[in-house]
Write a structure and sequence with these properties.
Cyclin A, domain 1; two-stranded antiparallel sheet
């Protein structure tokens, strides 16, 4: 390695680091309590406006409203991640900052396609996109039972979910995870295998 090369490692903990490793590295510790996930939304929203990458003038306000609705809810403003830690089981633990980053990456990709196609959308259609990204970023690591619980939670907070009959939900365990947003109709469409 040449002298002008610098490496940065981001680790969850230093449980397996030897004293020699620690003494040779400059270590900056930032607690997830000190640096929460909230600023990610604000920075992302501001960057989209500054870079003029927003898809509509209302997008910035939609984002603020939906972050309040989906990530903070109830009169006592319970955070979604507090609720998830208490009532849900993940197959693999992932920090809230990582899940929010996954959400932002997914919604950025969808909004780019919308911008490229110059699609106009309503607030309801934007919320469908938001709900889709929320479901996959927050519940993508859930097993079927936990996905059903998340679907019901999203129903309770008033998310514009796909219309699923009680039979399909009960017997086939169908949830929002079985649908995607068709950008041609801006509505829910069930995942299907492509014809060969």
């Amino acid at each position: 390695m040449t002298e002008n090369v610098r490496m940065v490692f981001e680790v969850e903990n230093l449980n397996n680091a030897s004293p020699a490793t620690v003494s040779r590295c400059g270590i900056v510790y930032v607690s997830d309590i000190d640096l929460s996930w909230d600023p990610l939304f604000e920075t992302w929203n501001n960057d989209r406006v500054e870079d003029k990458k927003f898809t509509s003038a209302e997008e910035r306000e939609y984002i603020k409203q939906f972050v309040q609705k989906y990530f903070w809810f109830g009169d006592d403003r319970i955070g979604v991640f507090d609720l998830l830690n208490k009532q849900y089981n993940y197959t693999m633990h992932v920090q809230p900052v990582v899940r929010v980053t996954m959400f932002l990456n997914l919604i950025t990709a969808i909004l780019k396609r919308i911008q490229d196609k110059q699609i106009k959308y309503s607030k309801l259609e934007f919320e469908k996109i938001f709900a889709y990204c929320f479901a996959w970023a927050i519940g993508g690591l859930f097993e079927t039972e936990e996905r059903e619980k998340l679907h019901k939670l999203m129903e309770q907070i008033g998310a514009p979910l796909p219309q699923i009959s009680g039979v399909k939900m009960g017997q086939e365990k169908e949830t929002i995870f079985d649908y995607y947003i068709n950008l041609d109709t801006m509505d829910w469409k069930q995942w299907e295998a492509e014809a060969w």
